[in-house]
Specification:
about 170 residues; mainly alpha; Rna Polymerase Sigma Factor, Chain: A; Arc Repressor Mutant, subunit A; 2 domains; globular
Length: about 170
């Protein structure tokens, strides 16, 4: 009973929240870019959908004044971890697969060479790049997401970018 009273008073005193559809429109592209950078272009859409399904359930209880983009990127990170875990539990195919997935579901600008370079990076470097350069999060928040300090997040992103510049440019030449 006390919980509903707190919720009502927070709702009555707080600023009206944006409709969730508007949140998806504003932050959906950023969350999708982060999912692609962490999981790759083929698994990103599932993580994106799972992120917004979870966010939809939790959105009414989000405190007013929260950083919605950081909140959504945090959910996306957790969904990416879930997908990594699920992938490790899936059986490996023993023979040839009969069909290839359709390529028209993925963006036309999907660069397999770039994804291969991103995938070769250590996980923390790849995530630091995704959170800072794609989601636009400050290094302090990136550090929190990675369980590190701001300077460690900055270093991971810089090291990852240096490696990408060296390997990606070399592959593109």
């Amino acid at each position: 009973m006390g919980g509903s009273r707190n919720w009502q008073s927070r709702r009555l005193l707080g600023v009206a929240m944006k409709p969730f559809e508007q949140v998806v429109t504003e932050h959906g592209p950023t969350v999708l870019r982060v999912c692609r950078a962490i999981l790759g272009p083929h698994e990103a859409e599932d993580a994106w959908s799972e992120t917004f399904l979870s966010a939809l359930r939790a959105y009414p209880d989000l405190p007013s004044g929260s950083n919605i983009r950081a909140w959504l990127v945090t959910i996306a990170k957790r969904k990416a971890i879930d997908q990594h875990r699920a992938r490790s539990r899936q059986p490996m195919p023993a023979g040839e697969l009969p069909d290839q997935p359709a390529t028209d579901r993925y963006p036309a600008d999907c660069d397999d060479t770039l994804w291969a370079a991103l995938e070769a990076l250590p996980r923390r470097q790849r995530e630091a790049i995704a959170y800072h350069h794609l989601a636009g999060m400050p290094y302090a928040q990136v550090g929190e997401l990675l369980g590190n300090t701001e300077s460690a997040a900055r270093r991971a992103a810089a090291d990852g970018m240096r490696t990408l510049r060296n390997h990606y440019r070399g592959a593109a030449s």
